[in-house]
Amino acid sequence: MSSITQPIGGHGDAAGGHEHHPSGIMRWITTTNHKDIGTMYLWFSFTMFLVGGVFALTIRSELFEPGMQILRPERFNQLITLHGLIMIFGALMPGAVGFANWMIPMQIGAPDMAFARMNNLSFWLLPPAAIMLLLGLFVPGGAPETGWTLYPPLSIQQGMGMDLTIFAIHIMGASSIMGSINIITTILNLRAPGMTMMKMPLFCWSWLITAYLLIAVMPVLAGAVTMLLTDRHFGTSFFDAAGGGDPVLFQHVFWFFGHPEVYIIILPAFGLISEVIPTFSRKPLFGYASMVYALCAIAILSFLVWAHHMFTVGLPAAGILFYMYATMLIAIPTGVKVFNWLATMWKGSITLEAPMLFALGFLFLFTTGGFTGLILAIQPVDVQFQDTYYVVAHFHYVMVAGTLFAFFAATYYWLPKWTGHMYNETLAKWHFWGSFIFFNVAFFPMHFLGLAGMPRRIPDYAQQFTNWNQVSTVGAFGFGLSQLILLYVVVMCIRGGKPAPAKPWEGATSLEWTLPSPAPYHSFPTPPVVQ
Amino acid sequence: MSAATQGAKPYYFVPQPSPWPIFGACALLLMGTGAAFWFNGYEAGPWMCLAGFCVLVYMMFHWFGRVIDESEGRLYNKKVDISFRWSMSWFIFSEVMFFGAFFGALFYVRNISVPDLGGGTLTSHFLWPGYAAQWPTVGPFLKDVFTPMKAIGIPLLNTIILVTSGGTLTIAHHALKSGHRGSLKFWLFVTIVLGFSFVCLQAYEYHHAYTEFNLKLSSGVYGSTFFMLTGFHGFHVTIGATMLTVMLVRAFRGHFDAEHHFAFEAAAWYWHFVDVVWLLLFVLVYWLV
Amino acid sequence: MTTAGAVGVPQEDDFEARRRAAARRTGFGLLLVALIFFFGFIASRVWLSSDVSMGVVGAAVVVFVIVAVGRHLRK
Fold first, then answer.
1. Span A371-405, pLDDT tens digits
2. Residue A35: which domain range?
3. What ipTM, to 2 d.p.?
4. C19 vs A284: CB contact, 8 Å cut-off?
5. Which of C 5-44 lie inside 8 A of A, CB atoms?
């Protein structure tokens, strides 16, 4: 898409002697380097992914047979809550920020993020928040049993784990807002000369839009949980009909955050996929401008559809109709994107390395999840499916096979740039096939279970659901074990391997591939000129 | 760049490794867990909170002090200035959205939940018979009787104070741009005095509400929305006035010049934001009762 | 690349024009596929045994896309 004509100055340390940074643990604690911080984000994300994954496997073990096996019902619900919160706020969002930190400065030709110290704070707020979330398991009353949506009145009645969760959400919100302001400023202000907005790699665009969404909705979530806190401890009546409030008010405020949050999670994945598919099709991205407009359209629409999560709480018919049709409208820009990815591959010269495999997996499975989303958008249908396993299947198809597969694709895509070594392609392909097959084994049966009426967030179920639940549990364990291959491949790639050239993928065009592999500590001390 | 390359401004500014972020993270961990312990009756809670707050203030002193040193050392170029402008704008936008959540709650209870509880619906007929949906309300179940806040009186006075402070701050800004340091210090000082008198009057009004009007945070949704909205606003006024105080101290130390004073401008933006929120509050919370 | 002209180097706008033409062809091709799919979808509702005919149309479209895209797969 863009090419360097003349890098002004060398890649050395023209920036003035900051190769010398503290070593050991202090390097990571005090760092102001976007690559160090990106690395920490990604490792934090992977750790949380394993923690949340262990919770998920515990849940699946409990559901292997009807009746109560290994957990008390309260503990089961606590794990459901923590699995959701940790995967969303601990694994997916920090993962996306990790890629942003690593790649955005390199892709726009900047030396670092605009606010390097604040960048460090954004990361280091996450471990305290994770500690507080997990601490909930060990305090009297345990973690919240409400599910990640924290609906009152149940959330009003929880023990102090709920308070820890509320403050953890405040802290993660602060982290996200700082991170977003940083990303927006970096993209708007630190682009290299000649790197116009419409020449930026699509990953940068996707994060620009995501950052706007984050700044707009994270404060609203903070407001919602603050109202929960005061309802719990200071006698306010926001969510209490006795005092003139309404529990449904929380749902409105929460989903005003929660629906854009869905796009906060998927848009960076769209960006990553838009990098990988052109590279391995050896064609420029089809319809670049329409991709940008589609991102903007999705972002705007995401603010107008929140009540489709509340179709069964008794909204007025006019409201239901509005939210139903507005929700369906989102299929149009999303369809534009899927169409453009297909058209990019059309007559391209395709090779199937691990990143491309994951991108193709994304394309198939995310589109499936999108279609079930359309089905759920139809209110009369949703009345049947609300809170069943059909919903669980739907959002795991978009979050796991969508966002997570995009993260895997991007990890393999950029590992040579990060580490300077090629990863083990054979094992990476095993990782893909393990993930792809076991993912479907784990989650496709949930469609059937949901259609048959199995409710979610319940530790026990009627006997006729047993078979598919057992299939699903087997798939879940297979999926979990497949991720250990990823860990092994990444660790081996960091420790050694075939040296990677500056541009290991012949079809890649963006600016990061003009830097040597591994990329120098400070990406572009002086800006490259882009034509 | 580092302080070592003073003088020649490099194309980009990238700060040295910094110890302060981890202080901030630890401070918030202490404050968050401390508050959770506190609200659940553990004695250690308040002390943890206090310790966290002290660490936070300590961090801010050093971190912001470092930034001020870098700025006064003229290490920041045009790009950094633009970065600061973008970031402050979007920070204020995030604050707008935070208040938006509470204004949204106010809108919802006034237009949807309270009318539904009393207005001839089946819910009201069977669950809350005899409840007349009117605003202000303590809700259908609570039995407290309170007097709502009047717009005339202290709130009106506070409006005048805050709008005036916006004007005096603008005068101070013009003085700074035209190099009248004495005038800058005077009008900035006046702004701060007005700001803190607003906070004091608000505190007096709260005291009045609790002791005379029986209007409490727990007085149904009226009390909830009233105290949460005005309380968070008052908190933001305190922050804004503190920021302006720092600017005054810096002005006395000879910082800022006609072109180079974004810190002052950022504080001024924040002050105007707080001002606008108050105008909304005055109309929606006090006036349209 | 271009062998027709006396100048061996392809002109920048010439390349750009060909890229645009190729993109337009791709767009039309996929649009046609989509239209046929939706036409088949609607038609299968009108004519009998909609499940089977829809399945056939859908499978045909998916198989066609896979073959058309994968035809250029390189080892």
1. 999 999 999 999 999 999 999 999 999 999 999 99
2. 28-510
3. 0.94
4. yes
5. 19, 22-23, 26-27, 29-30, 34
